[in-house]
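Hey, can you fold this one?
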Amino acid sequence: MIKKYVLACLLVMSVSGFVYASPKDRFVEISPKIATDESASDWTLGFSYDVNYPWSELQSLQLGEAESFVQLQLKGTVLEDKDLNNEALVSQVIAGFSLLGGQAVSPDFSPGMDPNAGVGASKDKSSWGYIYGGFNARHETIQSFDEQNLAAGFETGYINIRTEGLFSFIPSVIVAGEYVNGVASDIEEDTYGRFRAEASLKCAFGELLFDHKALMPFELRLDGRYNRAWDMDDKLKAADQDEVSYLAAALTYSSTMTLSFLKNPVFFIRYADGRIPPNTADERVVTAGVSLPVL
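Sure. Predicted structure:
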């Protein structure tokens, strides 16, 4: 069964080009991993995937850069033992507008210096991050497809694109109000309203704390999510589906090695507690693996 999921996801990634991504980021990432429960009694293999593919039109303003965008996002985790999977497979399209605040800072130039040096990093040093808003349409399912949702609504958020210095401790935040249609469920198919909030943080603390080059690539990543539904069927409320939370923390190490066409793999160990809808049972799961940027 897992081979079918691998082939399907690789097919999607081959024609699409997606962590918390800004509306300008285009990437594909796949992460082979091993997972276990909190007692370390059950072990399983699997993988996660992240795909982000945007189309945008950019316009420069005095406050920064504004753009209209359409963004395709595919994200999920597949495990051989699906009972350990407390995440979801989410496919989403967002159409809206974003503003990248701040202005580019020209690097100091001296005779003999490469005029192109630091061009890519100069803007990040003065950026406050992205503020965006738009309408979304999404499909959510668990690995077995026994629970599936279709959702649509309005989404807005702030995306912090800086991962270095004290500014990196400011989290990215997304909030959304959505109308959800439960198209498949073992408990009860229903339609209801939902408030969804997500927050994430990516901090290169190794560069702040350590002088040794070998320790500087350590990073901390946090991921928190909260879903609150209203006008939900009583059977779903009785199954604790009206209020769902999820929290994950990961320690990562970014490598500069190159594996064939895969560059800069990121090794990680991650602890997650709770569940992501439409999962129906909380799990505490520890995973370890490597994230491989494909695009």
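Confidence is low (pLDDT under 50) at residues 1-19, 104-110, 113-125. Let me know if you want another pass with a different chain boundary.
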